[in-house]
Amino acid sequence: MKAREQRFVCYDNELKIEAHQFNGIMQKFPNHFHEYYVIGFVESGKRHLTCKNREYIIDAGDLLLFNPFDNHACRQVDDKTLDWRSININESVMRETVRQITGMDYLPQFTPTAVHQSESLLLLRELHELIMEQREDFKKEEVFFFLIEQLISEYTDPVKESLSEVSEEIQKSCTYMENHYEDLITLENLSKLSGLNKYTLLRNFTKQRGVTPYQYLEAIRISEAKKLLEKGNDPLEAAMKTGFTDQSHFTKFFKKLIGLTPRQYTNIFKESKG
Rounded to two decimals, what is the model's pTM? Predict the structure, then answer.
């Protein structure tokens, strides 16, 4: 008998990070990115992962490190389900944490995507459990600092921030979508803005960003919708404010990228304030 899937998410008001736990899922996640860091590990199951045009087979005990805007996709490679735990850290929280640890103001770039049997797994698991238990003492914060210290020491260059390899033409398109995500945007708009014909824009954008322009726009819209849901906006209102044509499309796409429905995501923050 197939195990019933379970999805748990907890927002920690003190650390200002999310902890996710998915058990027994088979969901395929399409090529996408997040605007925040995702640090997670596989508890059980085997998946085929692509990230930044590289392929991996990830298995139980593997640590995964996604930087903001790292495009990735994954699917099961057998008929067994996935058990997964992760934490999401936005850029402002990561920057402040790194500043306190190193004394420098920069955003770290994790160089490996998948790490087999990392020693950091023990701290990550402990932090995840403390958040899920909604611990209120400072042990949670202590473990968080030690985890980030270990990760930036072992898996990043802590001295300087990586420079973007995105061209000026493609960056114009990105900035435009980031500022006008609620509007109807066409490929013609982006082509004129960048000075590139439509095909060249599509080819260069996908090569440099790892996702198509439309995938980039959808990810930006989902990111902005998450912020509205966190503030208590109704899913329909969030959909309309972020450029989705209807709530059905919004719900379907939200679950495809986040693994939860907008309503389930909203409930996390209602519970954290209760």
Answer: 0.78
